[in-house]
């Protein structure tokens, strides 16, 4: 399938099992929230999806490409925003994006056009000459999202992208990511905050290395607020 497929994925750090037989899929153009309390295994899953870690047990397919057998094709179709910012704060926004474009084999006019388009999408074009250090947290996140979109990936991974942002910036990034799915991107959004989940979202709840629930958010919540359902399933505060 295109979109994202995770099948029977298991990963351990020595004796500590961080993921155990994790399976789920996200259809192309869907927004899926990976919801889990601290230590659930979200970052480990993201490391496996980006090949920072490799597991011998399980399978990952990105936009129809098997990550193990066709890693270059799979990773070329993946955009990622990590939990911790990875922008170079001493470079301007445009320089950060240009460097990343070069990593994807884009240069010259082509790179310039992609960078401008990505910054336009995030309403960041007028800030392209600013030092990244001078941006507030919300604008830094926007710059990272723009950077993740430069190579027009089919699948976008966002690992707790609202950490440290104020309420307005949090809402704006959350809404924008949903908009990207409406436009056809497959989005996997990791969070431990239930207020970032929309009723219509696909939802995978991860807890203690395993998938506890997988379905549409409204169905999983059922007759109670999602925060209460999450608490009842995991014992964790949302
Ligand atoms: N390098 C490591 N060595 C040993 N154990 C680790 C390592 N990294 C993570 N773990 C453990 O693996 C489990 C899953 O951690 P992981 O960071 O993937 O969870 P998480 O859901 O991303 O949590 P958080 O929201 O706090 O980032 C946790 O029990 C964690 O302590």
From TrEMBL:
<dbReference type="InterPro" id="IPR003593">
    <property type="entry name" value="AAA+_ATPase"/>
</dbReference>
<dbReference type="GO" id="GO:0005524">
    <property type="term" value="F:ATP binding"/>
</dbReference>
<keyword id="KW-0547">Nucleotide-binding</keyword>
<dbReference type="GO" id="GO:0016887">
    <property type="term" value="F:ATP hydrolysis activity"/>
</dbReference>
<protein>
    <submittedName>
        <fullName>Putative ABC transporter ATP-binding protein YbhF</fullName>
    </submittedName>
</protein>
<feature type="domain" description="ABC transporter">
    <location>
        <begin position="4"/>
        <end position="233"/>
    </location>
</feature>
<comment type="similarity">
    <text>Belongs to the ABC transporter superfamily.</text>
</comment>
<dbReference type="InterPro" id="IPR003439">
    <property type="entry name" value="ABC_transporter-like_ATP-bd"/>
</dbReference>
<keyword id="KW-0536">Nodulation</keyword>
<keyword id="KW-0067">ATP-binding</keyword>
<dbReference type="Pfam" id="PF00005">
    <property type="entry name" value="ABC_tran"/>
</dbReference>
<dbReference type="InterPro" id="IPR050763">
    <property type="entry name" value="ABC_transporter_ATP-binding"/>
</dbReference>
<dbReference type="InterPro" id="IPR022467">
    <property type="entry name" value="ABC_transprt_ATP-bd_su_PQQ"/>
</dbReference>
<keyword id="KW-0813">Transport</keyword>
<dbReference type="InterPro" id="IPR027417">
    <property type="entry name" value="P-loop_NTPase"/>
</dbReference>
């Amino acid at each position: 399938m295109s979109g994202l497929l995770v099948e029977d994925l298991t990963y351990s750090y020595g004796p500590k099992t961080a993921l155990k037989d994790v399976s789920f899929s996200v259809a192309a153009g869907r927004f899926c929230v990976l919801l889990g309390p601290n230590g659930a295994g979200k970052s480990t899953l993201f490391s496996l999806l980006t090949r920072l870690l490799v597991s011998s047990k399980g399978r990952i397919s990105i936009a129809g490409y098997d990550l193990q057998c066709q890693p270059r094709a799979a990773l070329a179709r993946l955009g990622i925003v990590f939990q911790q910012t990875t922008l170079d704060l001493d470079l301007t926004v445009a320089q950060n994006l240009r460097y990343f474009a070069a990593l994807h084999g884009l240069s010259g006019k082509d790179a310039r056009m992609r960078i401008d388009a990505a910054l336009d999408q995030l309403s960041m074009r007028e800030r392209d000459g600013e030092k990244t250090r001078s941006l507030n947290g919300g604008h830094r996140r926007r710059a990272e999202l723009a950077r993740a979109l430069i190579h027009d990936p089919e699948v976008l991974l966002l690992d707790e992208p609202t950490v440290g942002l104020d309420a307005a910036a949090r809402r704006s990034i959350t809404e924008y990511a949903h908009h990207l799915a409406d436009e056809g991107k497959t989005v996997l959004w990791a969070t431990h905050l239930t207020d970032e989940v929309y009723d219509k979202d696909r939802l995978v709840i991860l807890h203690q290395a395993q998938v506890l629930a997988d379905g549409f958010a409204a169905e999983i919540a059922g007759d109670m607020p999602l925060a209460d359902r999450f608490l009842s399933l995991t014992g964790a505060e949302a």
